[in-house]
């Protein structure tokens, strides 16, 4: 899909489940983006939530699993089932995914067995963080990716959150923070 961000179109590759949730063309959409930089390309992958994005990035750490295979896995199986399969040594669920052979499925289970426990704990910790704090943290990370230093990004995001009286989503806070940063 192509996402228009301020008049610039970005080609984004999402899992099929994310495509099914997309609003109609021209309506606002919010995705978490993972960017994979290769010698010959820069490719963006879009996700509906932290769990999908985090699992995508964890899957990429497995030798022999690239973005296409990781995206296929997330397109066929929900995050909870992938995590459950890895934790219970059930490589057969992963083996059902197109492009994932038996050896690859076994390697995923073997290599991610310990990492997935840390991933689950990290997800649980993120869910316990208040929504407002999570929004500010996400805005700060977005501003850093745009080239701002962490301190300036943090103070602008916190001030922006106060200005929208806690009603802002991440993109609204980033927009307000950018206006503050532009003023100097």
Give an overview of the whole structure.
The protein is of the alpha+beta class. It contains 9 helices and 4 strands; from the N terminus they run E-E-H-E-E-H-H-H-H-H-H-H-H. A 4-stranded mixed beta sheet has the order 1-2-4-3. Helix 2 (50-60) runs antiparallel to helix 6. The longest helix is centred in the middle third of the chain and has 27 residues, at 102-128.
> How many strands?
4
CATH topology of the largest domain: DNA polymerase, domain 1
Identify low-pLDDT runs: none
Summarize the helix and strand pattern as letters.
Answer: EEHEEHHHHHHHH
Morphology call: elongated
Report how far apart the termini are.
35 Å
Number of domains: 2
- Please report the number of helical segments: 9
**Rg:** 18 Å
CATH architecture of the largest domain: Orthogonal Bundle
How do the strands of the widest beta sheet line up side by side? 1-2-4-3
- Share in β-strands: 5-15%
Topology:
Layout: E1 2-5, E2 8-13, H1 16-21, E3 32-37, E4 42-47, H2 50-60, H3 67-76, H4 79-87, H5 91-95, H6 102-128, H7 131-145, H8 150-163, H9 170-183
Parallel strand pairs: 2-4
Antiparallel strand pairs: 1-2, 3-4
Task: Summarize it.
The chain has 184 residues and is an alpha+beta fold. It has nine helices and four strands, in the order ββαββαααααααα.
What labels would you give this structure?
12% strand, 184 residues, DNA polymerase, domain 1, Helicase, Ruva Protein, domain 3, alpha+beta
């Amino acid at each position: 899909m192509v996402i228009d961000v301020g008049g610039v179109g970005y080609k984004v590759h999402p899992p099929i489940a994310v495509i099914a949730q997309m609003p109609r063309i021209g309506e606002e959409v919010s995705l978490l983006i993972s960017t994979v930089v290769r010698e010959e390309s820069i490719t963006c992958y879009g996700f509906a939530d932290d769990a999908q994005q985090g699992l995508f990035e964890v899957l990429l750490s497995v030798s022999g699993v690239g973005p296409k295979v990781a995206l296929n896995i997330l397109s066929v199986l929900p995050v909870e089932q992938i995590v459950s399969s890895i934790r219970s040594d059930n490589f057969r669920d992963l083996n059902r995914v197109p492009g994932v052979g038996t050896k690859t499925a076994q390697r995923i289970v073997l290599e991610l067995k310990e990492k997935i426990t840390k991933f689950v704990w990290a997800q649980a910790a993120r869910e316990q963080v208040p929504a407002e704090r999570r929004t500010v943290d996400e805005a700060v990370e977005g501003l850093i990716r745009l080239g701002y230093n962490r301190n300036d990004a943090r103070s602008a995001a916190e001030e922006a959150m106060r200005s929208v009286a806690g009603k802002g989503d991440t993109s609204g806070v980033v927009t307000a923070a950018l206006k503050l940063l532009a003023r100097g």
